[in-house]
Amino acid sequence: MKKRTKKIIGISAAAALAAVAGFNIITSQFQYAASDAEYENLSGNVQVGDPVEAVPVDGEAPASEDDFTTMDDTPRYDIGTYPNLVIDHAALKAQNPDYKGWLYVPCLELSYPVVRGTDNDYYLHHTFEGDELVTGCIFIDSGCAKDMGDYNTFIYGHNMKNGSMFGALRNLLADPSLIKDDPYIYFYTEDGVYAYRTYAFHKVAPQADFFAYAVTQQKYWDYIDRVLADSVEKMDTVVDKKKNSVTLSTCSGSGAAKQRFLVHAINVGYYKPAG
Predict the structure, then answer these.
(1) What is the value of pTM for the model shown?
(2) Residue 186 phi/psi, 5° resolution?
């Protein structure tokens, strides 16, 4: 009788665990769907126009992207054209005052609003519209400058199982040619468009110093050297260490094998719309 009782208890426990697992799956699917619906709605603030011709500083287009020039130390976008996303920044900022710009990675069809909170916890579990969901929101590290002016700006997002948000980044590990063929990352703000070119991507330990803020130019240069040495693939990007950069970060794996996946891109220009 005791053995039978233990067996019944074991079956009941297994059934309970299965029920909890099923509930969690359904809950996750619901939250994913809710998050996708929210961002589908937010994408209504973005329209895709014809490619914009770059405005050369001296009246003539540079011979190549490696020949970009500056005026008053302000980098200008110079690689012919950039994706023309017409974004209603005012409407997005009215919905969320923490809104800082729109992130676009063409090779991954990754296109999302980006916020910056007062800490790095809130947007881990709150969406752009403030709903409490596991999907969270894509956000700039609260320790970084609001204007993308630091040596290196960190942008975080969840590695979603359905491939949304920064879940799209894992496609680079399966097919590095995606980013090698189209290495550009764009960040659109009210004042202009920041253009970056990917120069490295890799997995690192959660506590690795690849998340350290570069507080001096020399530390930033050292950081770039370590990133280049650790990259999964060698990119055809000429890294000008005098330019700042952006790092996209997401989780990879789980449990004891949990890591972070980082994508690093160097600033290759800034386009300020005429007028």
Answers:
(1) 0.77
(2) -125, 145
